[in-house]
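pinging the channel bc i need a second pair of eyes. not urgent but kinda urgent?? the chain im working w is below, pasted from the shared doc
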Amino acid sequence: MEPSHEGPGDHQTAGNGDGAASSSMWEIEEVGDEAAVAGPPRHPTSISAKAAGVGSDDDDVYVAIGKSASSMDALSWALKNVAKPTSFVYLVHVFPVVHHIPTPLGMMPKSQLSREQVESYMNQERAKRREMLQKFLNLCHTSKAQVDIFLIESDQIVNAIIELIPVLRIQMLVVGTAKSNLKRWRRGNTKAEQIHKNAPHYCELKIICEGKEVDATDGTPPPSPPSNTMINKNKESNKSPLSSPSHDNNTDAKNKDKEQKNRSKDSIFLRCCSGKSSK
């Protein structure tokens, strides 16, 4: 993979226009084996603002983002739970390689179109990508987080992210996933699970579902919030009528047993959702 800036010029920044710190946007393109052997990339691997000595590598947080709502949940969780004031937050977005371009005659191979047609379409795609990324940037700016973006052009999302980990020596990676994906976790066909299985041991992976961390070993989903109906029923059941002292003592004993059982369940749940890998 070869890093380059997105858009014309040597340095491209993105911001929210309200005076917040600007953020660099880097695009990493796939290159063939021959180009990879020919020499190092045009920019060093430390191609972000951290090269200027801002923040600490140990505090850096990388968040894989896409078009799904789970990506926004992952970023929101990272900003609240793992990002520190000294942290740099790096947004990693993988987008597909353009092989065909839509035309009035249908999808045409890029190689059969003029340079102007290709460039026009690529500019449209960049504009869409920037519009999508701006939502994530706005959230980072609202949280006063220092942020950079890595854009990776690749048809293989999982492999692109895994290959980026040793290049940037990523120690903290946050990935979002939909709750529906957790139901087929053990089949090994979800992106989050594939990243978990293939990521280097030094990379701590946090998998977030609906704003909560889940166990990366078995994909334990977060519990659904109780409905208002269930809450009202529980309140009604807890209301005991006036009774004799002996009845109250029996009720207190039962409540204590129930509380102990609930505490046991809570501790089991917390262990399951600790996110610590068994590696």
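so The longest helix spans residues 115-142. and The chain has two domains: 2-222, 228-270. — does that match what u expected or am i reading it wrong
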